[in-house]
Specification:
about 45% strand, single chain, alpha+beta, 9-stranded antiparallel β-sheet
């Protein structure tokens, strides 16, 4: 076998596909890429014990066909350092010696027989599936707006992923860790089907990093797995089992007090005040008054404290609430609008955080539980 390919093009594909390979594999063979040459198409495949990611790149002057495995780390590092130029691969079909050459250099290695790479075809491939198509931007925004709220508690595995609640006219992305909840609705493309599944964090990260620039993504859902496919990549991801909590039940419907504030001003003020607060809980006290929002934090162990006032527009009774600085910073950093709206009921009930304006056909809702405080 032999073929010619652009070093930059191949690097883009192997670096993307390598994102699925964990730092430690129980199967040594999974530390390798599987390369499959079929006419003028080179398939690059990587897998862990549950997921598979495949990239497809066109090559030139191809001769022969077959499959072989090469060490993933070595290949990625080599092509990362190469300037953009044509690279010639020559593979001896008998002893699997590999020669990688270009204008001013040559590297030699020995491949592993591609037949040793595990075939991770789904056992449930014959089971009923649901298919729909969505845009890459729809998926990217859904993951960017929700992934920070995914839970990490292994006692609640259903919360350790992003829920896709697919409706005929929209896709709803939801994530929660019981302290905060995010619901992002995007109707820019209409799936035309109804289904739901919980995508693990690793799967969401792969979609964000690999499929974010794809114009269109075909999604095939089966009982235990989901397959995302574009012209360049195919990602087969195992799903999280179980039922996701009923997120609509926890969204407040009657928070009468409304605060409107400049997002960047509040974000930077929380960052500064939190420096002088308790590093353990990160508690920041918010005092809501009609024309200003006062932030306070202290750490009695070190005798530090700080406060700041942020101009705002607030309609409601004067009250005080406590929030974990980490949570409020995550929420404010995720919003992109100049102003944010916070709707409040009382210090013991969750607050509703909203952007001042939503994009067309989109809606972003965030819920944050307050912390107990002693005034």
């Amino acid at each position: 076998m032999k073929f010619n390919v652009s070093s930059k093009t191949l690097y883009n594909f192997v670096s993307s596909v390598s994102k699925i390979i964990p730092a430690k594999n129980t199967m040594q063979i999974l530390n390798n890429f599987l390369f499959i040459l079929e006419e003028d198409m080179l398939v690059v495949k990587a897998a862990d014990m549950e997921n598979t990611l495949v990239g497809r790149v066109h090559v030139h002057d191809a001769e022969g066909s077959g499959r072989f495995c090469l060490d993933a780390r070595r290949i990625v590092e080599l092509f990362k350092e190469l300037p953009d130029q044509g690279i010639l691969f020559e593979i001896d079909d008998e002893n699997l010696e590999v020669k990688i050459s270009y204008n001013n250099g040559c590297y030699n290695t020995v491949a592993i027989n591609g037949m040793e790479y595990p075939d991770k075809a789904r056992e449930n491939s014959a089971e009923e599936t649901i298919e729909f198509t969505c845009s890459g931007q729809q998926v990217l925004k859904g993951i960017e707006n929700t992934m920070f709220a995914v839970g990490t508690d292994e006692i609640r595995p259903q919360m350790m992923g992003v829920l896709w609640d697919v409706k005929p006219d929209r896709v709803i992305f939801v994530a929660t860790d019981t302290r905060k909840l995010v619901k992002y609705t995007n109707g820019t493309s209409q799936p035309g089907v109804t289904c739901s599944f919980i995508l693990p964090v690793k799967g969401a990260s792969v979609l964000k990093n690999v499929f974010g620039k794809e114009e269109e993504i075909k999604v095939t859902v089966c009982p235990t797995a989901v397959v995302f496919e574009s012209p360049s990549f195919t990602f087969d991801c195992r799903l999280i089992k179980g039922a996701f909590p009923d997120y609509n039940r926890v969204i407040p419907q009657s928070n009468p007090y409304v605060l409107t504030v400049d997002r960047q001003s509040l974000l930077t003020a929380v960052r500064r005040v939190a420096v002088f607060g308790d590093e353990g809980g990160g508690l920041v006290k918010f005092r809501f008054t009609p024309e200003k929002l006062t932030l306070r934090a202290c750490d009695n162990s070190y005798g530090t404290s700080g406060w700041e006032e942020v101009p705002c527009n607030y309609s409601g009774s004067e009250l005080m609430m406590g929030f974990g600085s980490q949570y409020i910073l995550e929420i404010l950093s995720t919003f992109s609008t100049p102003e944010v709206v916070i709707k409040i009921a009382d210090p013991s009930r969750p607050v509703l955080c909203l952007p001042a304006d939503n994009d067309t056909d989109c809606e972003l809702i965030m819920i944050l539980m307050p912390m107990n405080i002693v005034d």
